[in-house]
## 1
Amino acid sequence: MQDVPLLISRILSHGSALHGTSQVITWTGESEPQRRSFAEIGARAAQLAHALRDDLGVEGDDRVATLMWNNAEHVEAYFAIPSMGAVLHTLNLRLPPEQLAWIVNHAADRVVIANGSLLPLLAPLLPHLTSVEHVVVSGPGDRSLLAGVTPRVHEYEELVAGKPTTYDWPELDERSAAAMCYTSGTTGDPKGVVYSHRSIYLHSMQVNMAQSMGLTDQDTSLVVVPQFHVNAWGLPHATFMTGVNMLMPDRFLQPGPLAAMIEKEQPTHAAAVPTIWQGLLAELGERPRDVGSLTQVTIGGSACPPSLMEAFDKLGMRVCHAWGMTETSPLGTVARPPAHVVGTEQEFEYRLTQGRFPAGVEARLTGPGGERLPWDGESAGELEVRGPWIAGAYYGGEGAQPLRPADKFSEDGWLKTGDVGTITPDGFLTLTDRAKDVIKSGGEWISSVELENALMAHPDVAEAAVVAVPDDKWGERPLATVVLKDGATADFAVLRSFLADEGRIAKWQLPERWTIIESVPKTSVGKFDKKVLRRRYAEGDLDVTRI
Amino acid sequence: MQDVPLLISRILSHGSALHGTSQVITWTGESEPQRRSFAEIGARAAQLAHALRDDLGVEGDDRVATLMWNNAEHVEAYFAIPSMGAVLHTLNLRLPPEQLAWIVNHAADRVVIANGSLLPLLAPLLPHLTSVEHVVVSGPGDRSLLAGVTPRVHEYEELVAGKPTTYDWPELDERSAAAMCYTSGTTGDPKGVVYSHRSIYLHSMQVNMAQSMGLTDQDTSLVVVPQFHVNAWGLPHATFMTGVNMLMPDRFLQPGPLAAMIEKEQPTHAAAVPTIWQGLLAELGERPRDVGSLTQVTIGGSACPPSLMEAFDKLGMRVCHAWGMTETSPLGTVARPPAHVVGTEQEFEYRLTQGRFPAGVEARLTGPGGERLPWDGESAGELEVRGPWIAGAYYGGEGAQPLRPADKFSEDGWLKTGDVGTITPDGFLTLTDRAKDVIKSGGEWISSVELENALMAHPDVAEAAVVAVPDDKWGERPLATVVLKDGATADFAVLRSFLADEGRIAKWQLPERWTIIESVPKTSVGKFDKKVLRRRYAEGDLDVTRI
């Protein structure tokens, strides 16, 4: 067989030629969105590559960062930068500024391409960025914010204008770096995950498999999941492979504009985290719109509440769970129910799992004592995965050596996901907790998430977080931290009985330690920040009752 | 990213574990077909590998041949042999015996696994096979035919019985040989195409993409295309990737049994060459059956006549053209009409093309003078392709060096398909002729196939073949060889006018040389054997009229 490397430039060339009339549609907040054909994207990607090379001096595996919303220019950067041999570094604009600066410096980005609307975030960072030589600005926004900065400032459109619309993309090693993305990292410094051309190519094929997202050129995908979030789950690459139109919300991520763009552009598919959908659902309840085109919705990032899934089913939008993480490119599982349960009551149960592993992702469960656990749907262990689009290391230890911390990679090279869950005999994953949050009590594991969900089912509880605290007898025991609703009357004894009732929680798992808090601390991406609670407990900052 | 090789053993492990309840259903001609779950196939593949290694001494990249119909045991061989590191060599049971013997000797097969029903073909060959040490027989058939042969004879079921049901599959180089298949080769010796683990893995992903066959575990695929014919178009591998059930006809390839198995097992998909479907259609006309489950039919091997496509449409079976060849694994194109023509009159035109190239297959057209031709839907040239599942050489020249004949591979490594056609701007291929059959007349190309189709549209013509013959003035001119129907009255002048009428054929392309023949000579796979006609013309064996 011919030894043809799997390169992103091949995806680009294919999409822009054979699916040249497919479109990237970017919402502008005005009546008419920006429409750019794949052929134009291909031509402009070539122009951008010429500009980066000739005007900005990008060479070798230089890192070029993007601080951008989902839009056509960001897609152009997605293809131009890796295709020319450089490395696309997508910056998460939701991170705290000091973390962003740390990440840019750690990656040694030479160029930042930024949307004008994000200059208020970028400008104050620039004095702290040690490697950035050029800033390229695209789209509306106040350029005066960049007055007096050290890096040279360029207009995206001026850079690309007049450049040749084709580029002789180099034949690279398919294992060379194509893109990178830092995990937000609730503990320690952020960690860079480097995607190769090979991993992105294979991942794109997987996304396009009928058993995964299964999109074709008959589809339009509303890509709400940010391009700075694990390559928008691989959609920009996957769509160029098959001519799927992309509908890009740019900065218009509020429920109102999302409903408007669905009604106007009639996407058939959408991908986003649950909170986005919760907002959209409320919006549609208040202001009904024709969203009938949207029949398939991929939800990842965190689990979709069953009530939300049912509400979308009623609207004719079929929700499909997927699970993954920055380190898994991200497609790790997709929850398409197996043939034998379709049409039965079990179908919904299967849809609530995180999903089934595809052929490219091998999985195993490791128990509290390091033992391998069976796939029986009951044994909970830490999930470890292996595959050609799974990270084998992090970027840049000393001397740019790859980092393989022992809590992240097993001795035989599998990724330790840090997620705890069960797997059914037919390979469906259900996550029950994060490994760092699970309570190791007397050699058994107690799921903090299970306790939290059970607590939050009580009508008086607004939010609840459960963390492990040291215990002389059991090693660790759960501490329940509860946010009560206004006017709530329940006390800890009532809540404890509620947990025990109807076997919701096994008796030995019930918390003895309880405390009321004002609100649960959250990370930059809106997840419970349990390390703050653990620290507050350790510092004696919580008023704990034992019952 | 982790450096995990793309191996067939991974497809097997995935399918037999995560899709363990999916089935290979083999027709037995009796009321109950044989049903074997993917889990059982996985266990038996491991047993077969143990038997091949421990009992038969298979090691390294030894070639193990199969002379088998489509059935569960053949699927087991498909996975066991490459997974253990050996090379699966599928033998085309339709080839003339002397060619089969040549092929087995050329590949130096050490073992042949044969269906009992094929022993009448195999037994007389054995004295001519120089490398075969073992014959393994599976399924019904008269074993006495093997009495007194030199190789040791084994029963498949006895070999696998009691062997361990797991095997520690080796971590191979993904570029190592996994399987091979010889082209039937109308000119010269047959040529071996060697598939690697990588090429088969990537091809399987492509087959499963929604834009290609797009099957999931909700499907059952009736695999009529033989497993000895380019790996049954990749279906056994692709189905194990996603849990698609396989319905295998074994030796029951006649229209009656095919209709019966469709009615009983309700496949959703089927794959076969047009002649099979023509027979099935006639059968269903005579004896209607419930074939409503079958909604998607992949047709390849040669073009599907429009009338057949329409007839299947009426039955609710959506025909989808695909094009490929042994050298392309085979998936080269799939004719899913582009979004913008769906529902319009153009849709049917697009479905009649060979289809669009997927991202993994790059294509170009080379004209009569070696020039690159545009994708304008009109310029006809020889199709050349490149990609990770496209052959880069043939097997086994002197000293097992790869063979790269200049008429098959361009200097820069692309495969010359030997097919002549046009490509639309959006990448849809229409084949018009074989390069060796096209008539090179005064620097222009005349399609022999176009002339044949136009001739065969005349009611008096049963069959017609057109071949190039030398011409002093033009280099080459077409010779029309015609088989008339019984009682036909048309003469050559009438036929010539018929061709010219309504602009069917441009005037300069009309044949001057005509002859009547009894029947068109055919190759072993039923294609017109034009070299026989050319030879008969050269030897003065045809009674040619010039008009």
## 2
Amino acid sequence: MNAGHHDAAWRHPDARPGGVIDPAHFIDLARTAERGHFDSLFLADGLALLGDARWNTVGGFEPLTLLAALSAVTERIGLIATVSTTFHEPYTVARAFASLDHLSAGRAGWNIVTSGNPAESRNFGYASHPEHARRYARADEFLEVVRKLWDSWEDDAIVLDRRAGRWTAEGSVRPIDHHGEHFRVAGPLNVPRPPQGHPLLVQAGSSRDGREFAARHAEAVFTAQQTLGDALAFARDLRSRLARHGRPADALRILPGLCPILGSTEAEARALEEELTALQIPEYGLAQLSGMLGTDLTGLPLDGPLPPLPDERRINGNKSRFELVAELVRRENPTIREVIARLGGGRGHRVVAGTPEGIADTIEEWFRAGAADGFNIMPPILPTGLADFVDHVVPILVRRGLFRADYGSRTLRGHYGLPRPAGRRHGDRREDQAAAASGAGPAVLPTGVGG
Amino acid sequence: MNAGHHDAAWRHPDARPGGVIDPAHFIDLARTAERGHFDSLFLADGLALLGDARWNTVGGFEPLTLLAALSAVTERIGLIATVSTTFHEPYTVARAFASLDHLSAGRAGWNIVTSGNPAESRNFGYASHPEHARRYARADEFLEVVRKLWDSWEDDAIVLDRRAGRWTAEGSVRPIDHHGEHFRVAGPLNVPRPPQGHPLLVQAGSSRDGREFAARHAEAVFTAQQTLGDALAFARDLRSRLARHGRPADALRILPGLCPILGSTEAEARALEEELTALQIPEYGLAQLSGMLGTDLTGLPLDGPLPPLPDERRINGNKSRFELVAELVRRENPTIREVIARLGGGRGHRVVAGTPEGIADTIEEWFRAGAADGFNIMPPILPTGLADFVDHVVPILVRRGLFRADYGSRTLRGHYGLPRPAGRRHGDRREDQAAAASGAGPAVLPTGVGG
């Protein structure tokens, strides 16, 4: 999140760029989001310094420690951390999220990603980067192990019988003895079962492998969609995959990113957008675009066209982001400078400049069309863009009956209207119980997003 | 820490055993310790469920997330987390501690350990456990990489020049390109240099390998010492090793553990000690002792002697704890029951039952003799044992001029009177600057200890 989701935000006078490494900045954002009854605060992540430190506010907090700190100064808002399955161990990750879920009394979520950047590999001893499909195979087994570890304690394992000297009931804490292709893990976990049973499982990659992973495991999907048509096609595809895995359509929330550039008039909003575009650093935009496209654009004229792009199959990083930009180029045939401007707000996520009513209209349109169960709100400038959304857009959504006027639940699963996974005690199955959530209301779900 | 450092504490009515997984318990402890102007709160750790869940309060928070949460609700107290070098990656660990140091504005410390328990290996894919010397060789290089990563950003790298579009100064954030025997790490870290330069480096193993590691790297050493003679011999040995590595004697603080069983009279203190002994669960004590001695004691008569012990060289786990128990057996020839009672308070750390004046006397005696620069206070029962120490022992130490009446510094290094390591900008050397600490006062350093 840092200074805002527009890549030039930090140069704008309303931004607080030093906040990238100041806990007070994030405490302020979390409290503002909680004041707006957001479901969650979401932190993106990478395991390397991604982006050029000269030109943008890169570098900052590690998500799990930051969200743990925020858990102590918030009451209701969900806390979603991105953690990769590529260079970590399942025991460590299961443990950290179980700990965060206990610290926050059931507000933790895990955005499960694979690490797609060669710079990340080089920080973990690898000369070349693990291949896309292989990363997802590892992620599948990783998640299997993590779930087993969360379930290695029964929900009511702790009996705390001082007189008899019994801390847990006999047999209620058991090894998992996992022996798989990628992992051998004995267990049990050294943390009691999380308050939510399992922290909420989120997924954010929209490639074919990513969609399949989401259809098998995820309960919420963050996705970048530029048009209503694309978003509808994505939602249809994902729901059909979900059905093929025997999961009901409401087992998963689809949350496209939305970067709202707000003004009290249309003209004011457009002026802010232009102000931000004018603050963009072309070298930075070119380097970012080169990374997204797997194509070195250095030295090309900004007002000329893009060169021919490689085939999607040759991309081993973020395949869905590549596809999004390639589609944009096919559709609009823009200059390089125009692409950089388009991607400035939210790096490929949808940017809408408008009045609070106009932003509420587009949210309502996508929601009613079935393209979104909610939105991942990515304010262009922080903290002002978040406060503006909470103060001016949220009340409109509440008036229209599209969003809650207060929290009706205490856990992240509760906010999303998702059930708590049953533990081992109830028959060793991983079926869902009836939804424990109450007051989840229509699933318009503004959340912050990291970066 | 959990319910207290006596292994039967959780059965005592003053304990709060459910606190093991309740953030409010730890917030209360941290605030009490801060009220007493303690240097730090220290959390021990293991990467498996160590100890039998049936008989004691095992399982709880992961230390980094718990301390991150406490950073948001405390102002001055240092936050020391135990993290192993055996099953983690240096990039991940460097990043987490840098993040905690920023979150706490310079209050983070890292207790650097190697994982010595076969149960830990089995959670990370290993059939057999890495050998003791090999673990320390890995730890050496691990620490080298972590320091390089912390130094990969210059202290003043962030220039935040909005007008020129400059976030960091050219060349102030650089790769480390480490290629060693155990690790290849490109860097730079994705967190700016920590406020303390490096979070405080702590070490807690007292074996020969552990002492050598401490002499090379550590700035504080936690150690279990049963007698003044042993503690003096340990301190002399460690200081001579320090000198051999060209480090001054005051580069390192020696902090023996102390479990104070307090009473308003000697008789009251002894009665509390006996009450706790009576609450011990023999099966639990026997299992713990079997682990410490690498010898299965199951089924042996509690009122008989210990069997012959293996040679120290055959121990691959915690060698120094083995040696401490073996020495105790040589010295006192106790029954198994007596050993279990002796180890109940603090698992091998020194237990002293007495009045506040008596406890202050033994602290002063060890400090003046040069056996301790401070103490790691391990209250037998929490939260009461900590509050009693803060309310009744600390004021005596303050009156005697042995301990601060208020914090005189804001960072953990400041509390310990240790210098801030210079960054790369100042000549690429890792020499210490003049001590930045003020008001550190005599180095009697009560701290909480984990478990």
